[in-house]
Design a protein that fits this description.
Radius of gyration: 17 Å
Number of strands: 2
Order of helices and strands: HHEHHEHHH
Structural class: mainly alpha
């Protein structure tokens, strides 16, 4: 297990590269729109908390989990493919409100998780259960999805819709793999019994 944890540390190093690059790319445009600002803050916090993260107690042995994580990290580049042209379905103000809601949710989740961050499914020092984690089990995925929707609804096109759909699908797969691994720990089983929903309260 110690050897695997060492590999996870190396894997983490390469995993933060997409998010570092995205933060760098977003920085000159953070005041152009709320979705870009929310994306920049999210990617920056991912990098910062990863640098000071706690060492995992246990790491998944499943190669499927590692492969899934690689695909999920690669998907971090997909938002760069979102086009700036498309049909405006909602107003810019409404889009900004959704994006600010996404940013607020993401900040609550990120700071609650703190140094328990990771990419490969693993058991950290504790199962985070406070704040927004009392409502849904994967609030960060929810916040990123909200931010993607805030962009999509003011620049709707087939390309943007397909890219958004692929990202959401990968989030669902990643959540499934994370929970499949964590369900072997009684503490997490107890948590899922208290918090029934993964992403949206009373829905899913």
């Amino acid at each position: 297990m110690e050897k695997l944890i060492k590999y996870e540390k190396i894997f983490i190093f390469f995993s933060v590269i997409p998010f570092t690059y995205l933060a760098y790319v977003r920085f000159p445009h953070i005041f152009n729109s709320f979705p870009v600002l929310a994306s920049f803050v999210n990617n920056t916090l991912i990098v910062l908390f990863t640098l000071i993260r706690f060492k995992p107690v246990d790491v998944t042995l499943s190669w499927r989990d590692w492969i899934m994580t690689i695909f999920a990290n690669a998907s971090a580049f997909l938002p760069l493919l979102l086009g700036s042209d498309g049909i405006q379905i909602i107003s810019t103000t409404q889009s900004g409100f959704i994006s600010l809601l996404s940013l607020f949710l993401m900040l609550l989740a990120r700071f609650q998780m703190g140094r328990n961050i990771g990419f490969v499914p693993a058991k950290r020092r504790k199962i985070v259960q406070g704040s927004v984690y009392r409502i849904v089990r994967h609030p960060i995925y929810t916040s990123v999805t909200l931010n993607l929707l805030s962009w999509l609804l003011i620049r709707f096109s087939l390309t943007n819709f397909c890219i958004t759909l692929v990202i959401i699908f990968l989030f669902c797969l990643l959540a499934y793999h994370e929970e499949k691994y964590l369900m072997k720990f009684p503490e997490y089983v107890s948590y899922t019994e208290k918090v029934k929903y993964r992403f949206i309260p009373f829905v899913i």
